[in-house]
Write a structure and sequence with these properties.
By secondary structure, this protein is mainly beta. 7% of the residues lie in helices and 42% in strands. The two termini are 22 Å apart. The N terminus is likely disordered.
Length: 92
Amino acid sequence: MYSDDDKEVDMIELGTKIIGNFGAMHPLREGEVDNRSYRGRRVIINKEVTDYMVKVKWDDGDYTWLDASEINAAVGKLSPIGYYTEEAYYAR
């Protein structure tokens, strides 16, 4: 568990499957955590990476850096749009 001010985030392991849901007009994106950065231990040098972010490599070869607090943030909310671990997405 990582905590920074009022934000508490579960540590995401490398290889964790991620699903991106962007709404009815867009197909689901599937990928996995390929890299991570947290509290000064930079795995990759990137000035735009905040304290705890993960790099998701999508099945199409593209990648996205996400703040870890964005993953599973939509669980239990009215809109399903967001990023999920595969486990949380299929459990909802």
